[in-house]
Amino acid sequence: MPEAPEVEALTLFLRERLTGQAVRAVEVVEFRAVKSRPRSLDELVGRTVTEVVRYGKHIDIDLEGTHLGIGFGRAGWATWTDDAMASDSSPDGAAVIARVRFDGGVLGITDAGDWLSVQLHVIDDPREVPSVAKLGPDAADPGFSRDDLARALGMRRKQLKSLLQEQESLAGIGNAYSDEILYVARLSPVAHAAALTDGEITRLHEALRAVLDEAVASRRGVPIADQKAAKVAAMRVHGRTGEPCPDGDGVVEDIPGTKGGGQYCPACQPPHA
């Protein structure tokens, strides 16, 4: 799943290439992805891109007041080809959901999942997309403060890993970066937010800032097609079940209850007292 650092890199990439570009044609391959019916992507033809903005893990492309909202879901991503007449096949074998042709190239929207997770909306305001309207503060924003995190945590008896991925509380973090943040903070993923001390909240905020700031900086400028590999290579514990802990003597294990979907180091992240 692309998370805020990768989507931010994609936003910057598209902003640089698309601003001032007009849509020449659209092709929807998988019509189930269009969630704004009866409005269709055909409305975009002839309009010029004025801005590209990230909202959490979503992208909004403003075309003279008509917006294309893209939600990547679990397995969505994008391709770009500079040849405006290219077929734009997906290099990783993902299914192409839609293509938007501009003067200077083709934007492809893809989905590599077993079920369709990409969502496309044609709207007049980005917050007409329900999942965007519900977003909490952006965790990848450098201004996301300790107080913002404390408000998101509240006094809730909810496990930290689940809460960090709750987009209504703080936007932009998904499965992988929640593992990485909790590892750097040396906090158990199954600890409840309500059990954290003030010092642990501070430590969690420092880890969140360190992990996301580093990821945003390192993904910037990485080609779209290489973003997933760059993310995987940077992971300390996520996806590394059975490997030695990078900072200690423990071994990375699956988080209980995640069915292999999340990882941690039990030696470095013991159960909360």
TrEMBL record:
PROSITE patterns named among the record's database cross-references: FPG_CAT (PS51068)
Keyword DNA repair found: yes
Leader peptide range in chain numbering: none
Reaction(s) catalysed (UniProt annotation): Hydrolysis of DNA containing ring-opened 7-methylguanine residues, releasing 2,6-diamino-4-hydroxy-5-(N-methyl)formamidopyrimidine
Keyword DNA-binding: yes
One Pfam family it belongs to: H2TH
Keywords: DNA damage, DNA repair, DNA-binding, Glycosidase, Hydrolase, Lyase, Multifunctional enzyme
Domain Formamidopyrimidine-DNA glycosylase catalytic residues, every copy: 2-104
InterPro entries registered for this protein in UniProt: FPG_cat, FPG_N, H2TH_FPG, Ribosomal_uS13-like_H2TH
The family this protein is said to belong to: Belongs to the FPG family.
Protein name in the entry: DNA-formamidopyrimidine glycosylase family protein
Species for this entry: Microbacterium mcarthurae
